[in-house]
Amino acid sequence: MASSFKPEQARAPPALPLPTPPLTKAISFKIGLCQLSVTPDKERNIEHARKAIEEAAQKGAQLVLLPEIWNSPYSNDSFPVYAEDIEAGGDASPSTAMLSEVSSRLKITIVGGSIPERCGDKLYNTCCVFGSDGKLKAKHRKIHLFDIDIPGKITFIESKTLTAGETPTVVDTDVGRIGIGICYDIRFQELAMIYAARGAHLLCYPGAFNMTTGPLHWELLQRARC
Questions:
Q1: Looking at the domain covering 29-224, what would its CATH class be?
Q2: CB–CB of 122/142 below 8 Å?
Q3: Which residues form a coiled coil (predicted)?
Q4: Quick one: pLDDT at residue 153?
Q5: Which residue out of 34, 68, 137, 204 is catalytically annotated?
């Protein structure tokens, strides 16, 4: 009996029930990319991010992106200390409270980089997307955690403290449909394939790659995901 298997279907993403938004004309908009210097002072980090977003908006940005883990030093020791309860909001999550206020006041879309999120007894590396109305439109938890051990150069095991997310994230915004990944997520083409199948107009991967492995592939992977 002949097999119905077709090799070209082996890596195809599953059919997904999301219609592609119609584009009656080309969309042109300005994106602001904020590169931030993170300190151990969380309040200072939040204020620094606020000012960077405001500056980008003043220059005409309609979509502003922050980097990965911008409110906390990037270490396993820091993640539990700086983690926020995003679902609770308010005082339990001052970082996202700021993003909500600024996006609403400036009428812009913000892809909020990522922060350590506490949910029950688990910690996640989480990106929040806020619409121009200040509402949380989507939340992406980093799916592929970065565990690396290069003798004499770098050892970092994110999975010691963080839990991997399980769900791809596509969100419709004022500037189009966006697929979200975080840093190491960019290494895995299947995620981008799923986003393309879901009709994403733009892929955003806030990152904080180290200087040992990052320079070897960061720019190349950005081009490959276009």
A1: alpha beta
A2: no
A3: none
A4: 74
A5: 68
